[in-house]
Protein: Phytocyanin domain-containing protein
Organism: Citrus sinensis
Amino acid sequence: MAFKAAHSLLVILSAASMLAVCSANRGWSNGFNNTYQWPWGHKNESHNSNNTTDDDGPNKIIVGGSDNWRFGFNYSVWAFQNAPFYVNDVLVFKYDPPNDTVFPHSVYQLPNLWSYLRCDLSRAKMIANATQGDGEGFEFVLKRWLPYYFACGERGGLHCREGRMKFMVLPLLRRWHF
């Protein structure tokens, strides 16, 4: 008897949890819970200024907005303020090619949080060299639901450490529309 009661309670709690999660999705809540976005998320004007597509498809997002990919800009704050990012969104890294007045920049994908925190590029993978950010920029697609860690790899990690040229994103799965 006690097993049956506990099992019934577990089923009711599971159903209530699933209902709460499902009703948090946009357009399905009927007023129950209309907080379907992070407070700093997609409706934030700063995100929309970097976003070049609509809400239903992948977004094309210029990293750093009008500041592009440069030394001294805090990309961790930028990523936080422009969240959420979604699977299949495209990050566009724009930066000038090196010349007499411009230091080179590159884009590396770091393998894990520890490498990101330490700006340890020893196991990082270069995804864009010093010239690929010119013009329309270098595009990187967030293909999977996993954390991505990015950094500038120039000067042995100096741009990452001192120039704050690093950020991480965890893309979310897109909402399903019923």
